[in-house]
Design goal:
The protein is mostly helical. The protein is built from four helices and two strands, in the order ααββαα. Strands 1-2 form a two-stranded antiparallel ribbon. The chain binds zinc ion.
Length: about 130
Amino acid sequence: MRLSEAIRLGAMLKPQAFGDYTDGIGTCALGAANEAIGLSANDDETEGPWPFIAIGLPCPSCGVTLGADPETGLGEMVEHLNDYHRWTREVIADFVETIEAQHEASMAKDSAAGCDESQPVVCGVETNN
Ligand SMILES: [Zn+2]
């Protein structure tokens, strides 16, 4: 499951919380994502299921660069949008989705590079050699 999907799903379970993964009643965007994949809301291993999220980005609201630290990654941005700008989790999920789409496009480009263009079906298939 993508992070954006997990945020949307978790947002349906509980109201939004700010400043922490959970306030005992609701969940922040990351807490919601955690619950959507069966973790407890305040599991701080959130980055685990979404290993690609360590990328530095300008905040779409105030421009500060966040997420460059591989320890926190895009999760840092999600937290910032949730707690500082108080974006709804649905709007945060929409933003995360655009990042995921960009990431997937660049991954596809990377895996296409160096492949034999006459055999596109073979390209991108992972081998264990
Ligand atoms: Zn900001």
